[in-house]
Design goal:
CATH class of the largest domain: Mainly Beta
CATH topology of the largest domain: Pectate Lyase C-like
Number of domains: 2
Shape: elongated
Helix content: under 10%
Number of helices: 1
Number of strands: 11
Strand order of the largest sheet: 2-4-6-8-9-10-11
Largest sheet: 7 strands, parallel
CATH superfamily of the largest domain: E3 ubiquitin-protein ligase SopA
């Protein structure tokens, strides 16, 4: 039997000591919760907010994240492509997402603000109209990604090959041009 929780506050928890029950969490707030290495397979989070949480190394097989917000969270090495992708809608602000993967995820208009996205895999992801506001994209992988109308004007350290990604109407700053031209191995002075 699965648990159902509505509009509850979960704070200052260490899930390795007090695990959450598999089930549905609707409009709940998780504050300063350490999920580190937890198994969230088949959990359903809807309208939830995660503040100052550690979700690094969490297993997400079949997990549902619908209209969930992550603020000041550590989400290192997560494989978001294993989530239920039919209802995947999230927002990230001031988060560490390094070494995570969004392989083939549909993320149209997903808010990403002041996030570290180092070595994140966006291969074949649909990032249409995503605004990478003040994000660090050092060594992030864009391969056959849909970046139409995406906004990189305040993002840094990205490398995007226009030959293998869809970048129609995407926005870039003048300072970011080397990241677009690196595939051509030319020098810009």
């Amino acid at each position: 039997m699965s648990a159902y929780h509505y509009d509850q506050l979960f704070e200052h928890l260490l899930l390795s000591e007090s695990p959450l029950l598999v089930g549905e969490y609707e409009e709940c707030v998780f504050s300063h919760v350490d999920f580190g290495g937890a198994n969230l397979t088949d959990f359903n989070f809807s309208g939830c907010r995660f503040d100052h949480c550690n979700l690094s190394g969490v297993r997400l097989d079949g997990a549902i994240f619908r209209d969930c917000k992550f603020d000041h969270c550590k989400l290192l090495g997560l494989r978001f492509e294993t989530c239920n992708r039919l209802i995947f809608s999230v927002a990230f602000a001031d988060c560490l997402l390094d070494h995570s993967s969004f392989y083939q995820c549909k993320m149209k208009k997903t808010p990403l603000q002041r996030c570290s996205l180092k070595e994140v895999d966006f291969t074949e992801a649909d990032l249409t109209e995503v605004k990478f506001a003040d994000c660090n994209l050092m060594d992030a992988l864009f391969d056959r990604s849909v970046l139409e109308k995406a906004d990189f004007t305040s993002a840094v350290h990205y490398r995007i090959d226009p030959n293998i990604n869809q970048i129609k109407k995407a926005k870039f700053s003048l300072e970011g041009l080397p990241g677009l031209l690196s595939a051509y191995q030319i020098e810009i002075k």
